[in-house]
Amino acid sequence: MSTEVGKKQCIKKNVLRILFFIILSFCYIYFFTNSTGQAIIKANIDGEFHISRILSLENIFNSPVNFKYFAHTGQIVNLMYPWVLVYPMYLLYKLTNDVVLAYYLYFTIITFVTLELTYYCSKKMKQSTLGAMLVAVLYSFSMVRTSDIYFRMAIGEVLGITFFPLVLLGIYQIFYEKKPKWIALTLGMTLLVYSHVISVVLASLLILMFFFINILRKKINKERLLALLKATGMTLLLGLGFLLPMLQMLISVDISKPVVYNLFQAALKPNDLISKSISNEVSSVITFNFVYIVLIVILLFNLKKIKGFCRDTLLLGTIFTIMSTTLFPWDVFQNLLHVIQFPWRLIGIASLLLAFSFGSLFGNFVNQSHHNKKRLQLFAMTICCIVLCHFGTLDMIGNINGLNNGDTSEKFVKEVSKNPNFNGLDDYAPKDAGYDLQFIHDQKICANASWHSVKIKRTANKVIYKYDSPNATTAFLPVFYYPGEVVKQNGDRIFVQKAQDGATLVNLKEGENTFEVSFEYTKLAKASWTISLISFVVLCGYLIFKKKRVLAN
Predict the structure, then answer these.
(1) Nearest 5 degrees, angle CA 365-CA 370-CA 371?
(2) Could you please report the per-residue DSSP string of 142-205?
(3) Would you state the pLDDT for residue 283?
(4) pTM > 0.85
(5) Per CATH, is 437-516 categorized as 3.40.1130?
């Protein structure tokens, strides 16, 4: 009987926690609307770029290119940015026919996943129930998520933030548990691969730091190294579906990658970090919020009470915070770490590490009380402070560009599909495009050393150009050349060549020429996805077998 009662109480607690997290998810995501009730985005830095990504997933299972977007030039953005985990946003768009509403709904779900996953991982790392819940709320309501969702519209980064707790759990299980386990780190890193490439770099940096800490403490042995190698190997196998096609494009075509910034100049000034965090200011530059400043002060006054793994998370949380500022010698590491673009991205990992340290301190403090009512009251007060702090930030966001003013779904769709001109539009175009870029955007054909307007018929999967040539000559089609391009001339497939400006080079026949251009996944891409899917099935089989063996024993 006692076992059944215990199970019922456990189920009841889980249901209550899930309901609590659902409520918090809707507290976190506020659906801003205009005076007519349409969902709007208040601030937008990379919005058009990422909305283009989402809308272009219409034909992703048939082709990596959608000719309706990115100026119709055939850019392979979906091979350079992971798309698997953002595909549900496209499905929500198809369901609602409103890309902004789909955006808010998607991130309501992602906020719930972040809360649940952070709680689960914290519990696995020996946090108390209330401590784990506090870590989940602190991290999910951190300024890094608020800035990325409401201000920067950095979809991939928010997904990366969602899975950092799983990476931290993997680090804990490999470096701190008596018997190292590699599954959690594998899952965490694989989910990052399919979320955000830069987040993979940041997580690798975190793993490396924990590795060095444990080397200094002489805790690295063969078992731990083997577990780390297993996690690395399986992550590569599971991630091949995205990684190899991306590498194929980077090797085959000299692509215009996103801007490389001077890391020292892009880093936060220490006084800016402190002042913006205290004022709870949300902007395109990531900082902490006011709650985190209070949290840091409390941690500083209780350093002696923090031990073991939590002391290491506090240490690295402090280091990552320093690294986000000009206090760190970024000039020395410019060539090594320029890929992260902005040092303040490290605030995301610092937010997790500091929240985890504080959760442990909070858990130990409330456990000293023998009165459950007082524990819950203190927990409830803390949660209320976090939520109210977030509401203050939302109020600030709501006043951007005036109340009820913002970008609607209709405006986004129009801007990304007709004459687009937004930040990042040509981030992955060939570098050789140069001065011809505007002509390619205008969808003109270059023949006989001049650019000509042509008849165009376009769908998501293909584009058809019709041009009457006065003579036989060569021409540039206004579609960028990448591996996987298929060109048919007057119904017959022809050999694809790259023009000197990175576009598609063809031979014109005298008279009417009809070119049909499309893209297919390369053999390497198909093989990569096959290997990743087989690896996933094998991993699932291994986990099921392992669980059955444990239950049998």
Answers:
(1) 100
(2) SHHHHIIIIII--HHHHHHHHHHHHHHHHHHHHHTSSS---HHHHHHHHHHHTT-HHHHHHHHH
(3) 85
(4) yes
(5) no
